[in-house]
Write a structure and sequence with these properties.
Chains A, B: Residues 1-53 form the HTH lacI-type domain. The structure is a homodimer of 329-residue chains. Chain A has 329 residues and is of the alpha/beta class. Chain A contains 13 helices and 12 strands. Chain A has 3 domains: 2-44, Orthogonal Bundle (434 Repressor (Amino-terminal Domain)), CATH 1.10.260; 56-155 and 291-319, Response regulator (Rossmann fold, 3-Layer(aba) Sandwich), CATH 3.40.50.2300; 157-288, Response regulator (Rossmann fold), CATH 3.40.50. The first copy, chain A, binds a DNA duplex (30 and 30 nucleotides) through α2 and α4.
Chain lengths: 329, 329
DNA sequence: AGCGGGAATGTTAACGTTCCCCTACTGAAC
DNA sequence: GTTCAGTAGGGGAACGTTAACATTCCCGCT
């Protein structure tokens, strides 16, 4: 900036003002400054700016996995909502591990973000403390935590699955299995499984068809393997709810390989409304969690808090939508 | 740090050393300092550290889309390779738009990253200039640019598709179509299409079955739509190469909905070796671009450059692998 | 006792911005 | 002619850390 100031014949302070598009710089001066900057190949230094102004244009975000369309959609929504303000997303992934999340949160807070968005509502005590003391807006997503740290944008994974169980029961199906959600690490997955168990019990049905699919992320292949085990051990199963659409699609392919009709012999449902659920033949019954809306709502909330339009902690509920498709008709 | 220094009875400089795990701090002092820091709820300020030391622990990365398993794998590989060094990834996505890429690159360079990894080898002149003058290692990936800016980790998209065309020709198929790659914006997609055209001409075959799939990202649904158009207009087509596995799977589902055998009536191939290609029934012939290896190689290269083990610009070629599966047998 | 050397720690200034408080000038109102 | 408000711009210090250099201390050796 000192170099630019020299070339443009002004003080460094004026150069700074020109870049911040503050008022009190005349248009001619500003133009001269921006031209000089371009000529000199100057690139603004956000590091120094953030240090001096004690505020940053970062928003930190933690997600379990990069390679998951649902979370990617949430980040996409966030990114879109924050772009207008020139807020940049600092993304980290936890690999479905709350210990890794703790490390990651500390790393991210070192950058002094202006806000932090985390996936899920379960954290290590230390991570919780870090978030509480960070002095910035904290938003928990994809869950409805019992004791929120700050703001919440999410839904009850358990309640969403209950709706799916009720759907099958209305169709007269009673021997219903659940694939996945066995790993503690995936808290949303195990919440879905717990919701399945509770819903089955509420309907007075036997909960004897829980199939493990291993540690997250649960892929299509693991869904197929789990479905194979289910068919081998409990062939009289009528319907299968999978922890995600990916495993549901895997389960579907296993049926196709064995020549078992879906629907007909087995009804299958997933979770997440991934692209594949709509395109698969048969299309997959699923639950749309409005992943992108979670991101856009979180972004809007961040702007509201930063601008002082939002005072106390906000609770923005999402209502997942049951999508009945060919695989359960 | 001043507060911690007071509590621990040392100077701020010693506190700084304790956090940098430099040698010359006695173990007792270090323990006292870390304890004091924990008690005070101190979180290290990377912003100030980066400003003063004039180096950062950021690596900037641009990818076309968050929601693409191939690029997510590359980022995953990068992330894994850089984690040991505490290097954090600063991710931005360009939405397949080189103008957006230019804006993004400038934004990212403002953070003074230690290196930058970009997807693709085609950039706006200004973006190119920014990268050349950034004074940090630049790595172009997923492509083999004619005039690389710095380092390259990639492969020729055109050459990879040539291998696929040759595979079909060896099977005696001659009426081969290509779906996608019509949008300039997706440079890798259009390179694949150009490779298809060149390979067909080299084989002396007619290039009269190019089906547009619209602007990227090309989804499963668009693959299905394009396949529908192909079947309607040129039903005597024998084989279809799609710009990615997602569109290939979409094409497959369109055949299934119409009761047309794959393989048999139509052979189908994709690109990218996405999970779905292996799991689909029939499994999809595809090309494995070793997405994750691109990331791990780029990460290793960055460390080599930063440590002075790599002098000139490196060219690390990737050799994509043709995977013949059920959809083309 | 005196000296050399290495490990542990301290002091000062600086990284590139921006906050805060000023000054100079212009033009309009009285 | 004086006052006053408003606009454009400047000067100096400070954000929290660390590079560079300086100092202290302890130990072993002659």
């Amino acid at each position: 900036m000192i170099d630019i100031a020299r070339v443009a014949g002004v003080s460094p302070m004026t150069v700074s003002r020109a870049f911040k598009s503050e008022g009190s710089v005349s248009e001619t001066t500003r133009a001269a400054i921006l031209q000089a900057a371009e000529d000199l190949g100057y690139v603004f230094d956000s590091t120094a700016s953030n240090l001096r102004s004690q505020r940053s244009d970062f928003v930190a975000v933690t997600i379990p996995s990069l390679n998951n369309a649902n979370f990617a959609d949430t980040v996409g929504g966030l990114s879109e909502g924050l772009k207008a303000r020139q807020l940049q997303i600092l993304l980290g992934y936890t690999n479905y591990d709350i210990l890794e999340e703790e490390r990651l949160i500390e790393q991210l807070l070192r950058r002094r973000p202006g806000a932090i968005v985390v996936t899920g509502g379960r954290h290590t005590p230390r991570a919780r403390r870090l978030l509480e003391n960070a002095g910035i807006p904290v938003i928990e997503t994809w869950d409805l935590p019992e004791a929120p740290i700050g703001h919440v944008v999410g839904f009850s994974n358990a309640a969403a699955v209950r709706g799916m169980v009720d759907h099958f029961v209305r169709q007269g199906l009673t021997r219903i299995a659940f694939i996945g959600g066995d790993a503690d690490r995936d808290t949303r997955g195990s919440d879905r499984r717990a919701g399945f168990v509770a819903a089955m019990q509420a309907q007075g049905l036997a909960v004897d068809r829980l199939i493990a699919a291993g540690p997250p992320p649960i892929s299509m292949r693991e869904g197929a393997t789990a479905m194979g085990r289910l068919i081998d051990t409990m062939p009289d199963t009528q319907a299968v709810i999978c922890v995600s659409d990916l495993s549901a699609f895997g389960a579907l392919t296993e049926c196709q390989r064995r020549g078992l009709a879906v629907p007909g012999r087995y009804s299958i449902a997933g979770f997440g409304d991934y692209d594949i659920a709509a395109v698969a033949v048969p299309s997959l019954t699923t639950i749309n969690p409005f992943s992108r809306a979670i991101g856009t709502k979180a972004a809007a909330l961040i702007l509201d808090v930063l601008d002082g339009r939002q005072d106390g902690p906000a609770l923005l509920p999402i209502t997942p939508e049951l999508l009945i498709r060919e695989s359960s008709r």
